[in-house]
Design goal:
By secondary structure, the chain is α/β, with parallel strands linked by helices. It is built from 9 helices and 5 strands. The protein has helices at residues 17-27, 34-41, 47-56, 69-76, 80-102, 135-146, 150-158, 163-169, 180-198; strands at 3-11, 30-33, 106-112, 127-132, 172-175. It starts with a strand and ends with a helix.
Length: 199
């Protein structure tokens, strides 16, 4: 019988999910980051990279055969179909690594995954937290974080699920329409609730 409680952490891009993950880590939770797993999968010559190149073309690879992240993002967010295609390629690889990292874990484990629902990983979680925020706040954060235009930022926002979807499908909602201190406080309170349920 496993000794950990796996909690999925997801939400809208630019909502503050990374800050929430750091707050949980500060409280003592183990955090497994899906984006970090993807970065490890995106090594030259890996099965994941070869499949992406075959499906999206050489334009998403550098001359040395590594992933060109900007080119891949542009291609993947160009249409819902492309977004789904990339997910269908990458998600199985990520989930396999997740299970490897869960071996021997105990206590609260946070799975920080922006594509949690798209990957179907919500079904293996004991609960799901979604972080939401006003559209205008998210837009500004994405532009500042990624150094992209408003049009590109809106493109990424539109490629994601709606706030209504997250509210309907998550077990816990953290709204981030205040400052970072308020967000961290909300996360800490929620961690205490979840940790108490584990004991």
């Amino acid at each position: 019988m496993r000794q950990y409680k796996l909690i999925g952490l997801t939400g809208q891009t630019g909502a503050g999910k990374s800050t929430v993950a750091k707050a949980f880590a500060a409280c003592g939770a183990a955090v497994i980051n899906a984006d970090e797993i993807v970065a490890q999968l995106y090594v030259k010559g890996s099965p994941c990279v070869r499949t992406i190149g075959a499906c999206f073309g050489k334009q998403v690879l550098t001359d040395s055969g590594e992933i060109n992240r900007r080119a891949l993002a542009q291609a993947a967010f160009a249409s819902p179909e492309n977004t789904q295609l990339l997910g269908n390629i990458v998600h199985p690889f990520v989930t396999a690594v997740l299970f490897e990292r869960l071996r021997g874990r105990s206590g609260v484990v946070i799975y920080d995954a922006p594509q949690l629902f798209e990957a179907g990983a919500d079904v293996i979680c004991d609960g799901v937290i979604a972080v939401t925020a006003d559209e205008s706040s998210r837009l500004q954060r994405i532009m500042a974080r990624d150094g992209i235009t408003e049009a590109r930022a809106r493109e990424r926002m539109s490629a994601q699920r709606s706030e209504a979807f997250f509210r309907e499908n998550a077990d816990y909602i953290i709204e981030n329409n205040g400052d970072e201190a308020a967000l961290r406080h909300k996360a800490a309170l929620l961690y205490l609730t979840i940790a108490t349920e584990v004991r």
